[in-house]
From TrEMBL:
PANTHER family: DEOXYGUANOSINETRIPHOSPHATE TRIPHOSPHOHYDROLASE-LIKE PROTEIN, DEOXYNUCLEOSIDE TRIPHOSPHATE TRIPHOSPHOHYDROLASE
InterPro entries: dGTPase, dGTPase-like, dNTPase_2, HD/PDEase_dom, HD_domain, PHydrolase_assoc_dom
One of the GO BP terms on file: dGTP catabolic process
Name of this protein: Deoxyguanosinetriphosphate triphosphohydrolase-like protein
Keyword NADP carried by entry: no
Residue ranges of domain HD in the record: 66-202
Gene3D superfamilies (UniProt xref): Hypothetical protein af1432
């Protein structure tokens, strides 16, 4: 592994592009530290504890939720950022905020809400995360949202359609939507969070999948990335053949570590090849935070396995169908009877978007209670 630090490419909080609403600086915290603190204290962040990652919240106490996933992304992100010399506070802020816009019931809820909103601008959780931090949080007297710095908001908006980017650009010329129009890159810290997200969910979905009984260690040994570290662990600790839970943990730990080291080394090499000399030049280069070709291929194989064997498992799909039914029926009920929502949502100028905002902010269990209240039927 090479050892070059990339401090000169890190985002400097003293050089931030600022907030949408001017505020005096905090006496004891830099801009990115302040962003992180605002995110942690937000209502949307607390709700993540009862939002689905893969398994619905009521299915088990130890399965990951959106909150624990976000914490794991932040941990991985900070570890990589520290090794590369990037800004750890910015990485942590982006990691903790990146899923704030996720619906109840995970991707199933998002797909159903997008279907409901098809004629009204659609629904996308990355854009919704930006709406949460820019508009929907109500904590300050002078502005809506959390008024985060540009760099944090840029990292939160990982993906964006051209149409949505143009809408953002009209509202905020030169803002966070601009890079999707110009096809430029975000900061290295934002790129890092995107990859840390993938590393985290592949690893913890293996753990949760085995714990649930929906996938087995035998199945996983057909996946090259997992099989390599599984065998390596057994070679060094044969006694773990009788302790499958510890064997799984150690296999995942080694897999995570090598993915992290791979990203660190590959990123340093990519930066050297690109010859970038400043954080601004990073934005004009191609993606620089990445896996090596070999690790990318092996990770893709693992992701494909998880998609087919876990995310599309009949048991998961059964709950997915009921979750989507709950979201669709909630949407229809609130559109027909807006007064069933809190007054500030019911009074929204765009009723369909207000309904989407309200549903997206729900936890799994609150959505199910509301569905039962409005329909008289109990799902899941």
């Amino acid at each position: 592994m090479t050892t070059t630090a990339l401090h000169f490419l890190a985002c400097d909080p003293a050089q931030t592009r600022g907030r949408r609403h001017a505020e005096p600086p905090a006496p004891t915290r830099n801009a990115f530290q302040r962003d992180r603190d605002r995110i942690v204290h937000s209502t949307a962040f607390r709700r993540l504890v009862y939002k689905t990652q893969v398994f619905l919240n009521h299915e088990g106490d130890l399965f990951r939720t959106r909150l624990t996933h976000s914490l794991e992304v932040a941990q991985l992100g900070r570890s990589i950022a520290r090794a590369l010399g990037l800004n750890e506070d910015l990485v942590e802020a982006v990691a903790l905020a990146h899923d704030l816009g996720h619906t109840p019931f995970g991707h199933a809820g998002q797909d159903a809400l997008n279907e409901c909103m098809a004629a009204h601008g659609g629904f996308e959780h990355n854009l919704q995360s930006l709406r949460v931090v820019d508009q929907l949080e109500e904590r300050y007297p002078a502005f809506d949202g959390l008024n985060l710095s540009f760099e944090t908001r840029e990292g939160v908006l990982k993906h964006c359609s051209r149409a949505n980017a143009e809408h953002l650009e009209r509202a905020e010329p030169g803002g966070v939507g601009r890079r999707f129009i110009d096809r430029t890159q975000p900061s290295l810290e934002a790129q890092l969070c995107n990859l840390a997200d993938a590393i985290a969910y592949n690893a913890h979905d293996i753990d949760d999948g085995v714990r649930s009984g929906l996938i087995s260690m035998g199945q996983l040994q057909e996946v090259a990335l997992f099989a390599h570290y599984h065998q390596q662990t057994l070679n060094e600790h044969p006694v773990l053949s009788e302790k499958p839970r510890r064997l799984l943990y150690e296999t995942i730990r080694r897999m995570l570590s090598d993915q992290v080291y791979d990203v660190i080394d590959t990123t340093r090499q990519a930066v050297a090849r690109a010859g970038v000399q400043s954080a601004d030049e990073v934005r004009l280069a191609g993606p620089l935070v990445a896996f090596s070709a070999d690790m990318k291929a092996r990770t893709a194989e693992l992701k494909k396995f998880l998609f087919a064997s876990l995310y599309r498992h009949p048991q998961v799909m059964q709950t997915t169908g009921q979750a989507q039914q709950a979201v669709r029926e909630l949407f229809a009920a609130y559109v027909a009877r807006p007064a069933e929502m809190p007054a500030d949502f019911a009074a929204g100028a765009d009723l369909h978007r207000a309904v989407a905002d309200y549903i997206a902010g729900m936890t799994d269990r609150f959505a199910l209670r509301e569905h039962e209240r409005l329909t008289g039927r109990k799902l899941l």
